[in-house]
Write a structure and sequence with these properties.
With 284 residues, this protein is α/β, with parallel strands linked by helices. The chain is 44% helix and 18% strand.
Length: 284
Amino acid sequence: MNYRHAFHAGNFADVFKHVVETRILAYLAQKPTAFRVIETHAGDGIYDLSGSAAEKTAEWRHGIGQLISRKAPASADVQALLDPYLAVVNPHLAGASPRYPGSPALTAALLRRQDRMIFCEAHPDAAKALRAYLGRDKRAKIIAIDGFMGLGAYVPPIERRGLVLIDPPYEVKDEFALILAGVETSLRKWPSGITMIWFPIKDRAIVTRFYHQLGGLIAKAGIKEALRLELWIDEPNPDGPLVGNGLALINPPYVLEAEARILLPYLAGVFAVSKNAGHAIAKF
């Protein structure tokens, strides 16, 4: 599949991914020492939801649009976990030309003065757009480089604390193999870092094989904590549209599993398009 960010900005998968990301960043910010976020496939940074790419699919209307217009209020526990994410997103949605902040914009909004960001983006147009948006931020380094090459070059960060976000467009057939090779390098150089991998769920056999192979790398690195989160809004179908996605998390914050058990049932209910919607939480 081809998962170019601009066509899917603000959809249910973006909301899921970004809510979890904000929970991780909130956890890292609890300590005063600096940390770094390294993103392998950063995209444009922020997306015009009235633009041709976003309007071609209009997926955001059933994603972030659905979340902010929900009729049933969230419980206090759910709302408290969503608030850091919504505090960044809502101002961008206001006005005649709504925009959706991708992970670089979310990261920039949530990081502190002492924290740093590295954004890798190989696509020339996306890298140009990202520089236009964040190029003046002294905390950010924007590099036009293949994300997996960047992962080998910029890990470990000097801060020794932080998050690696791997979110490729899945344009090539061996994308999962590239992810595994990149993660193996990253774990060898920085076994204590937090890693978050986003992936589509269309073919369960492919995802199961990925889990098995990633689990082997995690075990080889001697890492004891790793988590799988899944959210689907209908039954995944290899030949159908994207209705399921997952996150693989290595060294997740100790609170994240409990937070996911509060958030994921709610998000599955908000975004469900059939009775087959659901979620899953498991350890590697």
